[in-house]
Amino acid sequence: MPEGLSPRTRYYYRFRVGSWTSPTGRTRTSPAAGDASGSLRFAAVSCQAYHDGYFTALRHLAQEGDVDAVLHLGDYLYEYAVDAHGGDRADPSLELPDRFNKETVTLEDYRLRYSLYHRDPDLQAAHAAHPWIVTWDDHEVENNYADEIPDGSPPEAFLARRAAAYRAYYENLPLRPPQQPSGSSLQLYRRLHFGKLAQLDILDGRQHRDDQSAGDGWQVPTAETGRPDRTMLGTTQERWLEDGWKNSKAVWNLVPQQTVLSRRRNRTTGPFPLSMDAWDGYPAARRRFLEAARTAGVKNLAVLTGDVHVHYAMDIKEDFDDSGSRSVGVELVTTSVASGGDGVAKPGDWQTFLDANPHMKFYDGRRGYVLLTLDQRQLRADYRTVDVVTRPGAPVTTAASFVSRAGDPGLQPL
Ligand SMILES: [Fe+2]
After folding, report:
1. Distance 247 CA to ligand 1 centre (A)
2. In degrees rounded to 5, what are phi and psi of residue 197?
3. Ligand 1 centroid to residue 90 C-alpha, Å
4. PhoD-like phosphatase metallophosphatase domain spans which residues (predicted)?
5. For the packed helices 283-295 and 235-246, what is the interaxial angle rounded to 10 degrees?
6. CA of 377 to the centre of ligand 1 (A)
């Protein structure tokens, strides 16, 4: 690991192995401890289903200036089969061998899948342009698994599959030596400081969670859903987060993580089904999360989320059952890079979601990423979108921008 780097400085690097030399990458170090000057810029991305389309959003992200770090919020790859022409990419110049046309299960499968993704020129460009900070969601292993419980694969073989997937993740993504996996476990949650402007508590909401209740999917919560001991993060991670918040001196506390924290209803009259895979399926865990932020005195909380393949901008309410209750933070949900294929700005449930969730300020169903710019006074979110991913080259536009002022949580449109 390089030592003695200067804070807030651009560096260029290459890798050499034998006679091979990699293209040049560019990175940037974080501000020095205590430095609250200037601004920081992060990009949030998630959900790169190669077989659903081109990573055009990442090509545009590579061209964004002064990004301090790209935050990948999960589904870096998908375990599903990819056919010879790359699924919906339908790329006639691609002739993938049959071994890609099956779900990933073994270590070799997962390694090959990373090699396929890492040959994508748009993904390469985004890695070469900016440093990345990653966390995972489910598809790096298997759809909607929970801790040691698989979603569809045989339970007795699942831990071997998880071990293979975690090892390949560690081998292929920018993690640090303490995160080296041990068997089927990997220490993923961690804390990073960007001077005094931002503390990032990067969560793992997949490896330590209880199983989804009520049969997963969108369901009306059951008694089990409401059980007070249900956990999303596990006790150890919950305590670690609370301690980190208590000791935080940062102006902004950012929480890059996987699944939607805020309440989401998909209808305006009850009974209300909720997403059992998201924090809505773990209401006691969400209460503890918000209570921990409150008792720690976190003033500027921004939760960054992926998973749902749409953009949302939401205020985090102290009590989601009371739309008049105060906002205690903001949640910025980034859409997918490619998962879901070509999207539309207003999906069929667009109006219903906005009506059913008054704390939701914005919803867009296209592909893209979120750019965050923050300083001592405010956090700004720009929702970047591309219209098409089933063919390359779509331009990028900013669909909406919001700010939340320091000390006054809540999103205001720009
Ligand atoms: Fe996804």
Report:
1. 33
2. -80, -40
3. 20
4. 42-383
5. 20
6. 33
Strands (E), 248-349: 252-256, 274-275, 301-305, 311-317, 327-333
Q: How would you write 122-172 as a 3-class SS string? A: HHHHHHHHCCEEECCCCCCCCCCCECCECCCCCHHHHHHHHHHHHHHHHHH
Q: Is the dihedral of CA 243, 244, 247, 251 positive or negative?
A: negative
- Residue 177 Cα to ligand 1 midpoint, Å, equals 27
**Residue 260 near residue 278 (C-beta atoms within 8 A):** yes
The per-residue pLDDT for range 236-288, each reduced to its tens digit, is 999 999 999 999 999 999 999 999 999 999 999 999 999 999 999 999 999 99
Domain range 38-413, CATH class: alpha beta
What spacing in Å lies between the alpha carbon of 86 and ligand 1's midpoint? 17
What's the pLDDT tens digit per position in 153-201?
A: 888 899 999 999 999 999 999 999 999 999 999 999 999 999 999 999 9
Beta bridge partners of 303: 255, 331
128 CA to middle of ligand 1, Å? 23
Rounded to whole angstroms, the Cα distance separating 245 from 187 reads 19
**93 backbone dihedrals φ, ψ, rounded to 5°:** -80, -10
365 CA distance to ligand 1 middle (Å)? 13
Tens of pLDDT, residues 373-412: 999 999 999 999 999 999 999 999 999 999 999 999 999 9
Task: Tell me the CA–centroid distance for residue 357 and ligand 1, in Å.
Answer: 22
